[in-house]
Amino acid sequence: MDGLRQSVVSMDQLPVSETPGQARFLEEPEGSLFPRLRWLSPRRLAFFLVFWITIFFAGSVLINNPFTGSGAPTNWDLGAGSPNYYWVVMYLHGLNTGLVGLAALVACDFFELPSVHVRRGILAGVLVAGILSPIGALFNTSAPWTSPGLWIQITAFVALDEIVILFLWGMLSVWREGAPRSRTFPFVTVALVGAVMLVAALIGHLAGVILGFGDNPSLLGQYASQEMGMSLNDWAASLIGAHSYLMITAVPAGIMALASVRFGYYRLAGTTKKIAQLGFILVGIDLVAQTGMALLIGFSSWPGDLPPQISALPGVPSFLALNDASNFVFLVLGGVLLLGALAIGSGRLRAWTSDPGLSLKALPLLMLVIFTVLTALTEPTNGTAIGTPPQAWLRLFVAFYLTMLVVLVVLLSERLLGERQQIRIGWVATLGSIVTFAGVMWYLSTNSSDGGFLAGAGLVIIGISFVATSWWGLYDGVVRVRGARGARA
């Protein structure tokens, strides 16, 4: 283990680009991976997915609107016993499937996975998972296995499993080849994130089988009662909790690692390099700890409570479990150290008045702060898994999903778009994020619908930045392809 750590630290100074002669994944020529489907390229699919999941994110307010309908027994009355609870959760899964698929495209490009088979498999998997899952979420309104929407989403989830497995295989192949980029903290962290996501997926699949088929096979009920001392429904709830904690840890960890690759980690030196490495170590500790706790929560009667000596301390929130504490201490602190070191040590904040792209480059740190604050403030208070309707929508759809999507859009824009386009997207997305955050804070502190309207205005601004990103990305790709065809002619 010491040898591995020393290898990672010593090789961490090397640049990523080590595959001369092969196009980066997001720059694959049209038709190179699937000659019969020339329209299917990584770049085109990535920018289309941004547009696609933006539409479905806007539709989430029709399923769980946090700012209207208070007191009415409709979507607003959301809880574990509500008939709308399942739909809200599965709709979020529909969005998250596209989010993880988009992250897989970016990761395959950033770490330059060379295998053509891996590239083809990931591209095909993202196409199936990213397109189908949001569609299935529209109709997957209840748990019984007869729902057509459920089977559409199951198809998407299987495709997502294929993406993660192929990605891990590609990362392992690069490691076995001894490529210098595989001996760096970002590479190891993203590989660990992929493994954690695979564990989370398997736990989620087991919970889904129980929700859809009940005690069938009867071995499930026997295990729940004899080995865990609880009912089958209680076991499913424990599995869902374990799955949720793993995903809410793995996704931010992976996206922070991707941001570090794009925004100058390999150019760090001295103290800032050590700070960034410490951040990665803390994030890695959290990933390992959360995996162990998820297995305990999902397959034992372990309660996951904080030790009483800690929970009794003044200032410790009553809702805080050991999982939450681990995330706050390791994931958040590690992320602040990592992204803060990038902001300072990579030169991104020097002469800020003369750096027109600063808004784009500083967004990952801003999104981590928003994610942390809103996640803490919207902790469930009504005894359900996801809280009151405002808490549920703000915690799941805004604090988690939207902040992660903004960073991915930033990474795509900075990687593939021109400087003028980056500046526009950066400032619009930054403005929208700040306005949304201000509106949410206003709403949470006063319970005033005016805060909701302000947050809604911020979301519209962010949506404009997403649509602009998709338009410029797809349009530039078409222009480039036409130019290449003209040159060949």
General description of the model:
The structure is a single chain. The chain is mostly helical and 489 residues long. It has helices at 2-11, 42-59, 85-110, 116-139, 148-176, 185-213, 219-227, 232-262, 270-299, 308-311, 322-345, 358-377, 389-416, 419-446, 449-488. The longest helix is centred in the last third of the chain and has 40 residues, at 449-488.
Furnish the topology, listing elements before pairings.
Layout lengths: L1 H10 L30 H18 L25 H26 L5 H24 L8 H29 L8 H29 L5 H9 L4 H31 L7 H30 L8 H4 L10 H24 L12 H20 L11 H28 L2 H28 L2 H40 L1
Helix pairs in contact: 2-3, 2-4, 2-13, 2-15, 3-4, 3-5, 3-8, 3-13, 4-5, 5-6, 6-8, 6-9, 8-9, 8-11, 8-13, 9-11, 11-12, 12-13, 12-14, 13-14, 13-15, 14-15
Summarize the entry for a quick read.
With about 500 residues, the chain is mainly α. The chain contains 15 helices and no strands.
List keywords for this structure.
15 helices; mainly alpha; 489 residues; globular; 72% helix; disordered C terminus
Rg: 22 Å
Sketch the major β-sheet.
Answer: none
Poorly predicted spans: 1-11, 69-81, 481-489
Overall 3D form: globular
Through-space gap between termini:
57 Å
| Count of individual helical segments | 15
Strand content: under 5%
Average pLDDT reading: 83
Q: What structural class do helix, strand and pairing data support?
A: mainly alpha
Query: What fraction, in percent, of the residue positions are helical?
Result: over 70%
Q: How many β-strand stretches?
A: 0
- Strand-and-helix sequence, N→C? HHHHHHHHHHHHHHH
